[in-house]
Amino acid sequence: SHIRHAWDPHKSVAQNLAEMGLAEDPNKAVPIPKKLLGMEVESDGQQPGKKIVRKPYVVNEMELEASLPEKKSNTLSRDLIDYVRYMIQNHGENYKEMARDEKNYYQDTPKQIKRKINVYKNFYPEEYKNFIASLKPEKMEVQ
């Protein structure tokens, strides 16, 4: 978005990027020294022409945005939550029965189902505790 706002449609891509202080060709911006390639070539010590950066705020804003910590999205799909709750409600901790259940559309193995349940436990620990607590009275009434 920073580049989009600073972009001048009347200029070429190379001109726009040069004004923002960005490289058009990364191979030219950060060249590999000839010494690393196995050839020793003496250079005359002059840097290729330095370009004037007219819009330095673009690079500064991009660096600031990149330095912000990532937001973790701790959500699971509604389908996965419903699947896990159904399996726990009908089979409890019996993963082999869960694997044979007709709602096991993806033919998950018992270990895969256990892993999905553990993911659900880790993402929503309070919801899981409440769900298990709500199942206990139902089990007692049935027995």
Short description:
57% of the residues lie in helices and 0% in strands. The chain is an all-alpha fold.
Low-confidence stretches: 41-46
**Total domain count:** 2
What Rg do the Cα atoms give?
A: 29 Å
Reported for the largest beta sheet, the result is: none
What portion of residues is helical? 55-70%
Overall geometry: elongated
Word description of this protein:
- The protein is mainly α and 143 residues long.
- The chain folds into two domains: 1-67, no CATH class; 78-139.
- The protein contains eight helices and no strands.
- Helix 5 packs across helix 7 (110-123) and helix 7 (110-123) packs across helix 8.
- The longest helix has 18 residues, at 125-142.
- The N and C termini lie far apart (62 Å).
- One of its GO terms (biological process) is ribosomal large subunit biogenesis.
Tell me the layout of helices and strands.
Blueprint: H1 2-6, H2 13-20, H3 26-29, H4 56-67, H5 78-91, H6 95-100, H7 110-123, H8 125-142
Helix pairs in contact: 5-7, 7-8
Can you tag this structure with a few keywords?
single chain; 143 residues; mainly alpha; 2 domains; 8 helices
